[in-house]
Amino acid sequence: MSLRRLLIALTSFVLLSSSVFAMQPPAGQSEFVPVDAVPLADQLPAAPLLITAYAFVWIAAMVYLWSIWRRLNKVEDEMRTLAQKIPHR
Amino acid sequence: MRKVFGPLAALAGVMLVASPFVVAQAPFEASMGIVSKIFYFHVPSWFAMFTAIGICGVASVVHLFRNSPRADRIAEAAGEIAVVFGLMGLVTGPLWGRKAWGVWWIWDAKLTIALLLEMTFISGILVRKYGGPGSDKLAAAVGIFGLAVTPFVYEAVNIWRTIHPLTSVVPTLPARMALPFWFCVTAYMLLLALLLMLRVNLGKRQAALDELYLAYED
Nearest by CB to A52, which of B16, B95, B208? Predict the structure, then answer.
């Protein structure tokens, strides 16, 4: 009878202890392993940088073109206004 | 000049639109991979900036010693365009560096002196805008100073130890990389010519407006 109880207790301990051990956090890193290449998952994606560079060049050129066009329109408007005023004097 | 402008604009537009497709055909650089393709936009930006600085510097010398309003207009236009192309170089460079070097910016000789060159030409614009009478002469002096500094910017990688790729990269490019590279350089030079023509025309119209104001006041 006592042997049977002992077996039940041992079996229960083994079964329960496995789940208890499974819930434990992983063991702390005991050593660092050096590698020369950055893991693929950690690498910065290059394509967005390339696209941003190309887009910026276009945006800068277009904004500058627009600024010339805007200034030219302003000058032409002023010239028209002045040209209208001069004959009246 | 107007006859040339249309075909030149069409050619520049076609080349700039085609440039990413031409660059896509180029092989990747072995150590940098896809990000190395920023090179095809980054270096031509600096080439265009240096050309604009050359034009600005020569026109500044002419204006300073011959008091030529036409040369002043060309110097003003080229100085402004140098800032635009410099900005392109200063933005595309860090985008490349972030991937290639792991940092956006590093205060090494090449990058720092390039930033100072950009700031020199920004100061030229500010001098013209807020300098009052005689600011055109001061801006011309700034333009000549910028031209004198430019060889140091180009040669910085050979003079000092820097992280930036050396000037020997371009002359040693294999044909498959050299072709798209010089295609992009040509496109940027056409863009420079177009912007210069437009900006000089703006200066001419501004001068005409000033004369009209003087006639009105008289």
Answer: B95
